[in-house]
Every structure is written in C-alpha cells, then in structure tokens.
Design brief:
The complex is a heterodimer of chains A (224) and B (230).
Chain A (H helix, E strand, L loop, with lengths): L1 H21 L1 H21 L6 H22 L3 H5 L2 H7 L4 H30 L7 H25 L5 H12 L1 H15 L4 H30 L2
Helix pairs in contact in A: 1-6, 2-3, 2-6, 3-6, 3-7, 3-8, 3-9, 6-7, 6-10, 7-8, 7-9, 7-10, 9-10
Chain B lengths: L2 H27 L13 H28 L2 H33 L7 H22 L4 H28 L10 H4 L4 H45 L1
Helix pairs in contact in B: 1-7, 2-3, 2-5, 2-7, 3-4, 3-5, 3-7, 4-5
Classes of the chains: A mainly alpha (224), B mainly alpha (230).
C-alpha cells in the first residue's frame, strides 16, 4: 500500500511541477471561468433581486465548462510526448496512474476555483466565503474530476477529442451539477447545514461510486 | 435457408402481424378516453416505445459487461446494435411525448423528472454512437464504448433521483403511470398488446442488425487481410 501511494504522489508531483513551469491548465481554466462570468452578466443582465436566483447557476456553468477545458489537457502532454506508453511500461498499477492523474486535475481545478470565487463575489456583489459553499465546491470537483479523468483518457484516443470529452462527460455528471447548484444556492443565502445535507449526501455518494467505477474502468481503457 | 434466417423471417412476419393487430386495436377498437380525447391514443405508442428503448439499453449494459469480461466480439456487437435501436426508439418516444404534451399539458416540454431523465438518457447514448464513430476501429473502440455503456446505465437512476429532488413540485401524472392503475380494461389490453408488439419489433430489429454487423465485421477482416497481402 505504501508503494501505491508513493507512486501516486510521484505522479501528482510530476504534474504539479510541469504545471508550475507552463501554468497551462490553471491559467486557461481560470481565464475561461472568468470570461464566462462576464458573458453571463451580459446575457442575463441580473438585477439585484435576481442575482441570488441566478448566481449559483452562473457559477457552476462557469466551473463546469472551464473544468472540461482543463480536463481535456489532462492527457495531452502524456500523449504528445509518448509519456503515457512509458508510464504503462513501468511496473505501476493502473489504479495508481488513475488516482495520480485524478488528484493532479483536482488540485488544478480547485486552485482555479478558489481564485475565481472572490472575483465572482465582487462581480455579483455576494459574500461567498461560507464553509458550506467551500464544501460543495470540494465535493463536486472530486466527483467531476473522478469521471472526467476516466473519459479524458478515452477522449484523448479519439478523433476530435475536444468535442468528445464534453459529449461524454456532461450528461453523466448531471446529478452532481444539479446538487451543486441547489446546495450552493442554499449556502449563498446562508441556509443551514440540514437544508444542504440531502444534496451533500447525493454528491458524496456520487463521488464514491464515480471513484470506484473509474478506477476499475481505467484499467480497461489503458490496455494497449 | 439457415435456422438463423428462418427465425429472423418468422419474427419479421410475426411482428408485422402483431403491428397490424395493434394498429386496429389502437385506432378502431379501443374507446376514446373521456378527459383527454383522441390525442390519448398516442399513449399506446409512447409507452411501448419507452419500454422497448429501456429494454434496449439494458441489453447494452449486459453486452458491455459481457465484452469487458469475455472479450468476444459477439457481446460488443450486441451492445452496439442495441444502442442504435435504443436511440431510435427513445427518439420516437421523445417525439411522441412532445406531440402529446402540447394538447394535454399545453406546453411542448416540462422539466419533469421523467421527461428530463429520458432526455439525459438519450444524450448519453447519442454520445455512445459519437464515441463509436470517432474511436479507433476494432478492439480499442469497443472497450471505450463498453465503459460508457456500463457507466451510462448505472448513472440513470442517480440522474432520476437528483431531478426528482430538484423538481419536487411537478404536474404529477395527469396521464402516465399513475393513470395506468385505473385504466379501463380495454385500454389495458390494447396497451399490453402494443407493448408485446414493440418488444417483438425490437428483438426482430436487433437480430437483423446483429446479422448485418457480423457481415460487416467479416468484410472488414477480409479487407484488412487483402491490405496486408498487397
């Protein structure tokens, strides 16, 4: 088991170091999320009364689409330089590769989200620093990247990979998006934990199922 | 004529006869529903289409699990063929639903759990067909599709639950499953015969498609062989 986590942390570190040099994923996810917030403002022209109703939806559309953009990049570097073949030749389990890649994407997405959140608060005149909202963001991003990493590995080997990933991923993550929007709305209005409990449980159950299924399925995907 | 062809032809004749019987029952025999009027007759197509579509996606899941487990082409052929027919049936189910909603609910669409889940279900299997089209040919593409075939099937109950919670207030079955419980017996008989008919049609189409896919597969293998010999 220690070997497993040593491999995982080596993989995550590799991705973080590569990311620190290029800053590709975090910058593109962040900029895209910010741009969507601005475009939504034009599209919806929310008045102060409407903001509490539309804000959680706007936030999650921005995170979702920006997240898809980031996840598309997950395996691009691995694939383009033939790194994936190298990884597969080493005596590491496929589960370790999956968990490593998933944790890397999770870190990048969470970093981008944490930067976007205060900007969102300023642009929509909200005070978003509520523990409930942060928990929703963490749990939802886990489920999203758990499924996203699996389908990113599939999409990378198809033609027109940029369109394939959202086509595969978005219908499957509908439950967590719904739960995230409702729970974020409750959190932004200062609702209690008990009001959010049902939705947090749904996201947590989805996370567990997504992680278990994806770890198994990843092995099937990566066989050459 | 091989047994396979005989079975297929027999099924074709049988489902054709049953279709004629269903059409007679639906348009001539069954009485018009009092409150909903003549538009309710689309119900005898809508429900069987939904049933046959879901049955097809169950076959997809079984075929996908079978393929990942046994790695024989037969399982993959079944899953791929069932998706094509399932998408056809669910498309028709959505269209008949939309056509029926307008006169009865006075809207084309409501974001009710059953409608929304059907739409997501449809999108998942349309994505499956796209994935097949864009994947590399052969074993690799089949594995990718099988992963989606399993994930999609087990995701649908969670989708339904989340939408159900999200839309706690929805126009509870003016028509539909809640109404079937007190269906007048002639209506029940018509519905059941129509369900049997569409199930037969599904099996008939699945066997045809499977046989065609096997031929396609053989042709591909032959073409690859010619390419390597050249």
């Amino acid at each position: 088991m220690t070997g497993f986590w040593a491999t995982v942390s080596a993989l995550v570190w590799k991705d973080i170091r590569a990311e620190l040099r290029t800053k590709d994923v975090v910058i593109s996810v962040l900029t895209f999320a910010l741009l969507s917030l601005v475009i939504f403002n034009f599209a919806l022209r929310p008045s102060p009364q409407v903001i509490p109703i539309v804000a959680p939806g706007v936030l999650w559309v921005a995170f979702t689409f920006a997240g898809v953009l980031g996840l598309t990049r997950t395996f691009v570097l691995e694939k383009d330089r033939g790194n994936l073949e190298g990884l597969l030749l080493t005596p590491t389990s496929r589960e370790a590769i999956y968990v490593g890649k998933m944790l890397g994407s999770l870190v990048f997405m969470l970093v981008a989200e944490v930067v976007v959140l205060p900007l969102f608060a300023v642009l929509f005149n909200l005070s978003p620093f509520r523990p409930g909202l942060l928990l929703v963001m963490l749990l939802t991003t886990i489920g999203f990247t758990a499924v996203g990493t699996l389908f990113s590995a599939i999409a990378i080997n198809t033609r027109s990979r940029e369109i394939m990933l959202p086509m595969l991923l978005l219908p499957l993550v509908v439950p967590v998006i719904i739960a995230a929007v409702v729970a974020s709305g409750t959190a932004l209005e200062g609702g209690s934990w008990s009001e959010m409990a049902k939705w947090l449980q749904l996201i947590a159950v989805f996370d567990v199922l997504a992680l278990v299924f994806s770890a198994f399925a990843f092995e099937q995907v990566l066989q050459e | 004529m091989s047994t396979n062809t005989m079975v297929r032809n027999g099924l074709l004749v049988l489902s054709g006869a049953m279709m004629l019987l269903s059409l007679y029952l639906i348009f001539r025999w069954v009485p018009t529903e009092k409150n909903l009027g003549v538009s309710q007759r689309i119900f005898y197509f809508h429900v069987p289409l939904a049933w046959a579509g879901f049955l097809a996606f169950f076959f997809v899941m079984v075929g996908s699990v079978g393929y990942l487990w046994k790695r024989t082409d037969g399982w993959d052929h079944m899953a791929y063929s069932a998706v094509e027919i399932g998408v056809l049936f669910t498309t028709l189910m959505l269209i008949t639903g939309i056509l029926w909603a307008k006169p009865v609910w006075e809207v084309w669409w409501t974001w009710d759990p059953r409608l929304t889940t059907s739409l997501i279900l449809w999108l998942i299997y349309v994505a499956y067909l796209m994935l097949r089209a864009y994947s590399p040919r052969g074993e690799q593409g089949a594995r990718y599709a099988a992963v989606l075939g399993i994930a999609g099937f087990f995701d649908v109950p969670i989708v339904y639950l989340s939408i159900h919670w999200w839309r706690t207030v929805h126009p509870e079955a003016v028509v539909g499953p809640a109404a079937t419980s007190n269906l007048y017996s002639a209506m029940f008989i018509t519905l059941m015969i129509s369900v049997v008919t569409f199930t037969l049609l599904f099996i008939c189409l699945l066997l045809e498609r499977l046989s065609l896919r096997r031929s396609e597969h053989e042709l591909e293998a032959a073409r690859d062989l010619v390419e390597t010999l050249r």
